[in-house]
Amino acid sequence: QVQLVESGGGLVQAGGSLRLSCAASGNIFTINVVGWYRQAPGKQRELVATITRVGLRNYADSVKGRFTISRDIAKNTVYLQMNSLEPEDTAVYYCNAQVVTEDYWGQGTQVTVSS
Question: Is 48 in contact with 60 (CB distance < 8 Å)?
Fold first, then answer.
């Protein structure tokens, strides 16, 4: 079992920045990939960024150059630094951990970007 707890969401003006955190606990040594996803009202959940066990990163085209995924292994935490935020980035952001046989999800954190 893996438990994920997100934090760092909030309300920010367009052009501003936020940093989300995803703290993992439990059987973290089974995790292969950690990712951030988001879901806006009335839309499907979409991939934002991922980071693999060996540190390879992947980003959605819509956030490339603005968002950065990183990790602190000692703290078992993955971060999502979000810069140059746009109203279109408004969504609930979820942390996801992929192990061999299943996925784990956090409870989500709301990000609201005002214009």
Answer: yes
